[in-house]
Design goal:
The complex is a heterotrimer of chains A (about 280), B (about 260) and C (about 350).
Chain A (H helix, E strand, L loop, with lengths): L11 H33 L12 E2 L2 E2 L2 H32 L2 H14 L4 H15 L6 H25 L3 H9 L4 H30 L2 H4 L21 H8 L5 H34 L3
Antiparallel strand pairs in A: 1-2
Chain B lengths: L15 E12 L2 E12 L3 E5 L6 H7 L10 E9 L2 E2 L7 H7 E4 L10 H5 L1 H5 L5 H14 L3 H4 L12 H14 L4 E5 L7 H14 L4 E5 L3 H7 L2 E6 L2 E7 H6 L4 H7 L5
Chain C lengths: L10 H4 L2 H4 L3 H39 L2 H4 L3 E2 L9 E3 L2 E3 L4 E2 L2 H31 L6 H13 L2 H27 L16 H26 L3 H8 L4 H12 L1 H17 L2 H6 L18 H7 L1 H5 L5 H34 L5
Antiparallel strand pairs in C: 1-4, 2-3
Helix pairs in contact in C: 3-15, 5-8, 5-11, 6-8, 7-8, 8-11, 9-10, 11-15, 13-15
Classes of the chains: A mainly alpha (about 280), B alpha/beta (about 260), C mainly alpha (about 350).
């Protein structure tokens, strides 16, 4: 290679080696994900039978009805709480807050995202289950999930509301619309996809949480009674955790089935959230 | 500052440093450069002019195989450095870029110190000796007419410099790898007039040691600083010659139309 | 999930209707949403305050021993009388030393980062550079999907697949053949332990770091990469020595956040760590324990402590974990906002 100058030069083969290695890392990481997914599905899917949806857990086996119902209720109520508080926070931050307050709130919300789930759970255990005397309950569990989901919802809503174009709002104000009116009739529709994406992301997280619920919702082998307090609730993640440790094959089956159901639900919300993002970016602005 | 162009009758005896032969460049299906043939003599300044979109940037990027970085781009033909084709199979483009350096339109210093920026090239080529690196740094900064302005703050961030200084830093960075050819893609278009004139003075100095090919959208700049000029239009190399002959006696009507300002 | 760290502008503020008019509906709205915002703001303080207040008896009772002793003993519930220290009482023989758990938490966290950070950088670089454009959305989606897998499912896989593999294949081989290396020799253990915990935790934090690193690299324009290539570098050098350093602050922040996450992870660790009480790991296969895992695993036994001191000590543990992760989080967010301000983006 007469054209190359003699002397030191970067080795292209080194570069190629590194890139190969980095791709290998990517494949390895994705490979592990696949194996986890395949593992759960392979063992869980066959265990999903109709009876799972019609019977509750009893003792060490049974169905998943109570757990599914419990998860559903906990997440829905948690979402209700977090939508109110989260949207309210976002609206206040975007509309009414002075600049310094904006920074503070956004900072605090970001920090909240990093609080370990077990800390939230223990706090609520101490505050609600014990001190306030609610016992293991639906509401305590829902609040635990709400606290957890809050940062995601607030952030998504914050961005969504902030991105409403000035011109559209000006138009409404110029027509004499009152502030609340503008917010509800202009901002909301525009921000809706972003908010929904945030809620979906939060749902995915709420579905998969265990630690905060252990201390707040407790566990129950029975269908949730809709009593807000003094009535523990079952949920899917608990099944995965405890039933795999039992020495019975039937229990394991249940654990795998619960895990498979969880993966399916979470995967579905993930897909939904992604397609919302697509919808949002494809919408002409 | 106006630099008078010497009438380069001696040009024909200067060795050809860089030559493009039957160069065709495609972006996907788009035929961006059609059959370009060009000889660049050693130690001169060759300006590439033409209206925007005519392909001069595309052409110059082929000269140091920057199109290798673009997956859609395809280069056919050859580019000869001292007679050897840089596109020959088996040639590692990385080695080409030692010998043919490039300065870009927008200054792009790394977010590192001034010193780190200048010695980046030698470092990745394996130079470790701290003393040697300092020497290279000083030499390059002097070569870029920047030494006096920054010699006391080599360890400060390069991003603190003004736009013009940053561009000269990029030139110094380019000089530090000791190239033989320097390609410049509209190096002064993002700079203010004072900075521009400093860079133009610099180019005039550089041609003593290096061969310079410069893309410019300003005919006045080409007239000021270059020895040779080449006119591009819609991907075709229309005409090339000494700067004085191109600007006073263009052979092709299209060149004449451009020079006289019929189209921008 | 992709990290939703987005810098927001203040477009709305300039023409906020609130700034223009005062009316009844606006006031009600302001008050209601203000309350919501207050709740979001205050929740952290509320948690901190409450936990500290509840743990106070334990804090006084345990004193400095909490951090220096590794003996966790809820005492003898059948013993007579009580132990009293600093005015607070517990069951006789009780001693709550959390050193094992604090050490375990920091050790697993640190080792996880040692493993996960280089891997994440590699994966992010690959996503940005080597993966062909068509496959990129799929690859990105897959990596982000990893972040959505529930902790218990990771734990499940860990228990059923990883731990047996470590216990039956990896550990015996390593201790037999590489036993001369410090911390690799000794007992092969059951598979539950430090190695399993670090493995699982790495899987859980990699997606976070990859998503952020990838995002900040993509947001960087091509110019630094081109500049480096034009100077005759290889593409690997260009990426690692020109592009990556330019996004250093974003990467550092995401590493810190991932570290915080690893420290606070509960279920997956609980299921594979081996639940060490009162013992320190002798090699990478020994059982360990983390604060988060211990709070869950010790609750039932803590409930048998009539004096309540065990529960309060668990709360003290929760406080310790809370404070550690708070500090890490605040520092990380500070780095990110500082970098934003320096680079001219809105705070």
């Amino acid at each position: 290679m007469a054209i190359a100058r003699t002397g030191v030069a970067p080795k292209s083969w080194a570069s190629r080696t590194w890139w190969t290695f980095s791709t290998a890392c990517l494949i390895a990481v994705i490979g592990v994900l696949f194996s986890i997914f395949a593992f759960v599905m392979a063992r869980g899917f066959p265990a999903i039978k109709l009876s799972l949806f019609t019977t509750s857990t009893h003792g060490t086996a049974g169905g998943l009805l109570n757990a599914i119902a419990g998860t559903f209720l906990l997440v829905v109520i948690g979402l209700a709480i977090v939508t109110l508080v989260g949207l309210g926070t976002a609206i206040w931050t975007v509309e009414f807050a002075p600049l310094w307050a904006k920074r503070v709130i956004r900072f605090m919300v970001d920090v909240l995202a990093g609080v370990p789930s077990i800390v939230v759970g223990y706090f609520l255990y101490v505050a609600l289950v014990e001190e306030a005397g609610w016992g293991f309950s639906l509401v305590a569990g829902a609040i635990a999930l709400a606290i957890f989901m809050l940062p995601y919802v607030v952030r998504a809503a914050d961005v969504a509301f902030s991105n409403v174009p000035r011109t559209v709002r000006e138009g409404a104000v110029a027509l004499g619309a009152r502030p609340a009116m503008v917010i509800f009739s202009i901002d909301f529709p525009w921000a809706l996809p972003g908010i929904l994406t945030g809620l979906l992301v939060a749902t995915g997280i709420g579905l998969g949480e265990t630690a905060p619920l252990i201390y707040t919702a407790g566990w129950s082998n029975y269908l949730p009674t809709l009593a807000p307090t003094h009535s523990p609730v079952g949920y899917l993640t608990y099944v995965v955790w405890t039933y795999i440790s039992q020495p019975f094959e039937a229990s394991h089956q249940l654990a795998y089935a619960a895990a498979a159901l969880l993966m399916i639900f979470i995967f579905a919300t993930n897909l939904l959230a992604r397609s919302f993002v697509e919808y949002r970016t494809n919408r002409s602005r | 500052m106006i630099v008078t162009n010497p009438d380069q009758t001696s040009a024909s005896t200067a060795a050809t440093k860089l030559e493009a032969r039957d160069l065709n460049i495609y972006y996907g299906k788009f035929h961006a450069i059609k059959n370009a043939n060009l000889s660049v003599p050693q130690n001169c300044v060759m300006a590439l002019i033409g209206p925007s979109g005519c392909g001069k940037s595309t052409f110059i990027r082929a000269l140091n195989r920057m199109h290798d970085l673009t997956p859609d781009a395809r280069v056919e033909g050859s580019v000869l450095l001292d007679g050897e084709n840089i596109y020959a199979g088996g040639i590692d483009p990385v080695t080409i870029r030692h010998r043919i350096g490039m300065v870009f339109q927008r200054p792009n210093p790394f977010p590192k110190t001034i010193f780190e920026n200048v010695v980046y090239g030698p470092k990745i080529h394996g130079e470790r000796n701290k003393k040697k690196l300092l020497e290279i740094c000083e030499k390059s900064l002097r070569g870029a007419a920047l030494w006096d302005e920054v010699k006391d703050r080599l360890d400060r961030s390069a991003l603190d410099l003004s736009g013009g200084q940053q561009q000269r830093l990029c030139i110094a960075r380019c000089l530090a790898v000791d190239p033989e050819v320097i390609l410049m893609d509209e190096p002064a278009s993002a700079l203010d007039p004072i900075a521009t004139s400093k860079v133009e003075d610099l180019i005039d100095e550089l041609k003593k040691e290096y061969t310079v090919v410069i893309v410019t959208h300003s005919m006045q700049q080409a007239a000021r600083i270059s020895d040779f000029t080449t006119f591009f239009l819609m991907g075709e190399l229309i005409e090339t010659g000494t700067t004085s002959s191109i600007f006073t006696k263009p052979k092709d009507k299209r060149t004449e139309d451009y020079i006289t300002g019929r189209y921008g | 999930m992709a990290s939703m760290d987005i810098r927001v502008g203040d477009t709305a503020r300039a023409v906020s209707p609130a700034a223009l008019q005062r009316s009844g509906s606006q006031t009600i709205l302001a008050v209601l949403t203000g309350l919501a915002a207050l709740a979001s703001f205050a929740i952290i303080f509320l948690m901190l305050f409450f936990l500290i207040a509840y743990a106070y008896p334990a804090i006084r009772f345990n004193g400095i021993e909490f951090f220096t002793s590794g003996i966790w003993n809820i005492g003898n519930q059948y013993g007579s009388g009580t132990m009293t220290r600093n005015g607070f009482s517990a069951q006789p023989g009780a001693s709550f030393g959390a050193l094992v758990f604090i050490f375990g938490t920091l050790l697993t966290g640190a080792l996880t980062m040692v493993v996960a950070v280089p891997l994440s950088l590699m994966v992010a670089l690959s996503l940005v550079y080597t993966v062909p454009k068509r496959l990129r959305p799929i690859a990105n989606a897959l990596v982000e999907l990893m972040a959505g897998v529930p902790s218990v499912v990771y734990g499940l896989w860990g228990m059923v697949v990883l731990v047996p593999w470590i216990g039956e294949k990896l550990a015996p081989w390593v201790t037999a053949h590489l036993g001369f290396v410090p911390f690799l020799g000794g007992s092969a253990g059951s598979g539950n332990g430090l190695a399993a915990s670090v493995f699982i935790l790495s899987l859980m934090v990699i997606p976070i770091m990859v998503a952020t690193t990838r995002d900040v690299m993509l947001a960087q324009s091509n110019s630094l990469f081109e500049a480096s290539m034009a100077l005759g570098s290889t593409s690997w050098q260009a990426m690692t020595r020109a592009v990556l350093p330019s996004v250093r602050s974003g990467v550092v922040a995401s590493v810190l956040l991932a570290f915080g996450r690893a420290l606070g992870e509960t279920m997956a660790v609980l299921m594979v760590c081996g639940a060490a009480i009162n013992s320190y790991p002798e090699n990478i296969f020994s059982p360990v324990n983390t604060i988060a895992a211990v709070i869950v695993s010790q609750l039932e036994s803590a409930l048998t402590d009539a004096s309540g001191m065990a529960q309060r000590s668990l709360a003290e543990l929760a406080c310790a974990l809370f404070v550690i992760t708070l500090i890490i989080n605040v520092v990380a967010r500070g780095i990110m906002r500082g970098a934003d301000r320096r680079e001219g983006r809105a705070a």
